[in-house]
Write a sequence for this structure.
């Protein structure tokens, strides 16, 4: 148990800036609140804080870069807001080192679109669409995936991929379908719009 707690504390030191500041300011007190004994807290506090900060910064840059590579269109749509949003995601993330951080970040984008006035309302759909496409492509045993979106995600993705800007997008229900005719076979993809469900509200 002690080892598991120590590993958790070490992981947080490298990934949670607020925790890192609190721990080095009061290692005994913070360690005790987490179940560490005094000797283990002192051992972790003996780490060179400058080196811990430097490693944490390099780890953050790698994580941000990896997610940007996995979600290039979402990254492009976020523009200069990407790094700020990713930093918030890292600080608020309860699980460090998830198997697929891009999927976790896409979920985070979806949850925060409404709270950010500067974000387009279709941004959450784009993140969900992009991460679904990537995950399905990487799983040759997945034969059928169907997702419903509130905006024309295929058109938005295509425009962003061409380097264009997105303006005047109206909400419109879409059904995105990914399917294979057998395990390991070629992936097929179609997005079906539902004109009858189109709402007049313009972004």
């Amino acid at each position: 148990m002690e080892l598991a707690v120590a590993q958790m504390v070490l992981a947080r030191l490298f990934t949670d800036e607020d925790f890192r500041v609190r721990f080095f300011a009061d290692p005994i007190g913070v360690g005790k609140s987490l179940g560490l004994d005094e000797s283990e807290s002192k051992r972790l506090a003996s780490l060179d804080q400058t080196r811990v900060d430097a490693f944490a910064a390099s780890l953050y840059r790698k994580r941000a870069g990896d997610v940007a590579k996995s979600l290039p269109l979402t990254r492009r749509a976020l523009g200069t807001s990407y790094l700020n949003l990713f930093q918030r995601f890292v600080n608020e993330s309860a699980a460090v080192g998830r198997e697929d951080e891009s999927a976790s970040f896409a979920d985070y984008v979806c949850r925060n679109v409404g709270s950010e006035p500067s974000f387009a309302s279709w941004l959450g759909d784009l993140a969900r669409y992009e991460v679904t496409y990537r995950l399905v492509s990487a799983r040759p045993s997945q034969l059928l995936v169907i997702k419903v979106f509130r905006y024309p995600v295929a058109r938005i993705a295509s425009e962003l991929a061409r380097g264009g800007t997105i303006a005047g997008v109206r909400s419109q229900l879409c059904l995105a379908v990914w399917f294979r005719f057998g395990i390991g076979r070629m992936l097929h993809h179609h997005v079906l719009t539902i004109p009858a469900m189109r709402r007049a509200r313009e972004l």
